């Protein structure tokens, strides 16, 4: 300042060339000082001043920074160091408000653009990261207990998970076990975080009708003298009509849902179901018993036998009708086999199969003629072979004198008769009249003639 006063007086007095040179030098020096100050200001101010004054820049302008000021789980630099000053408090990890202090490295020779040299206090912020917390949709059958709701998370960064949140989820849903079918909103709250801006998204609880399986209709049932189930009972419906039966026959049952508002059949319908079912007749075989008869005899008494009648059933209680037999045999019929037909019987519970029998007509057995034994001459004719039924005699069937005789017996009908020994050929019969015994007495002696 003292040097400037003489210069001003010199200019007022219109100095000479020497003084003008000294003034030029002073002005040049002053210009140099101003230029140096401008260069120093440029070196300190390396970006926009977020507080309204020139100073250190904050890393909030995406066009000028490498790190976004949103919580990322990593260390974030809020503003960068520059030439001529140093920073403290310019880094952070968690979301929140921070205060950085910029201090000139050389406050004697440098100033801030506003002309001050004191440390600058700068407020900066790491914003919370967005986090979506959504209730997962679920479904339930009407009347069931409230299910356990679950959450899904979208937005966790750098290894964070649900343990990074505070509080416990609180669910809210209007559904109760006696609520009707429909959709119910599931809302959630109760979670907080210092690093995440939580957005809660509702879920949906779908309450649907309870599915009732269509009753099972039993098939291939056969009468067994026990009560049998044709349509199975179950939960959620009632059975009317004839769901069970004892005797063989056709039955009908109706299944009706107890609550068509909350239940439906497994085929998606709600109307009553009609079931027609059957107990088939059991198999019963009625067989005409085989019979034998000798040709010429009357027809024998026919009988039948049963196979398949259930224990406890009797012919009188289970079989209806009168048995009828048919057979072409008569007493005049020849030898042979004749079919015995049986019919006339019915049953409610048995499918009757009639099985024919056989009447075997055999040849008549002819006893061999009787040959008389121990015949002795008696002076008149004697019969040695007796006549009989079924054969004729030829030859010597009788004789007078002692001796050996021969007779032939021939079957009258060799086709329909047979000897008792199973043969049919004529039989030659030899028989004898022995000599009579004669006793003679002569002179006191007894003589016996043959």
Mean pLDDT: 85
Terminal residue distance: 217 Å
Shape: rod-shaped
Major beta sheet, strand line-up: 7-12-10-9
Total beta strand runs: 37
Number of domains: 5
Looking at CATH, which topology of the largest domain would you report? Answer: Immunoglobulin-like
- Tell me the β content: 35-45%
- The CATH H-level superfamily of the largest domain is Immunoglobulins
CATH class of the largest domain: Mainly Beta
Walk me through the structure.
- The chain is mainly beta.
- It folds into 5 domains: 4-39; 130-208, Immunoglobulin-like, CATH 2.60.40; 211-280, no CATH class; 283-362, Immunoglobulins (Immunoglobulin-like), CATH 2.60.40; 365-439, no CATH class.
- It contains 3 helices and 37 strands.
- The strands form 13 sheets. A 4-stranded mixed β-sheet has the order 7-12-10-9, with no helix packed on it. The chain has a 4-stranded mixed β-sheet with strand order 14-20-18-16, with no helix packed on it.
- It starts with a helix and ends with a strand.
